[in-house]
Description:
The chain is mostly helical.
Amino acid sequence: MGDLFQLFAVSAVVMGVSQTLSRERIFAPLRARLGGKDTWLGYLVACPYCVSHYVAFVLVPLTGTNVIRVTVGGWLGYGLSWVLSTLLITVIAAFFRVVFWYFDESQGLVKRRQRTEEEETATRRIQREQAEQTLNHIHHPHESQPPH
């Protein structure tokens, strides 16, 4: 049970870090400096799936999340376990990213709806103020004309 929790926890961390590095505004200058999605290197840091591989590659040995055990011993066995565990965590992180995108996008829709309602309210307020000014001009025409 502990291994399963750690697998999902590390996968969630990989998803979060890779999303932050590849999509959030704070790292936009880094992505732009590397060429964005127009260059090979830029694409590797602008793609959340690509970045999740690098993050998982670092986090697997740091967290000891070698969840895939191989029968080969020694350094070769450790290396295979590391690479295969990294790939598994990357795939799980990709599924987490889809779930995250769904909730993030639905939250974005809510925010866009709120912004639209606020803009409509502001537009109605401006229209009301313009109508009041027009009515004031009709009822008090001498106030708005300059003296001769």
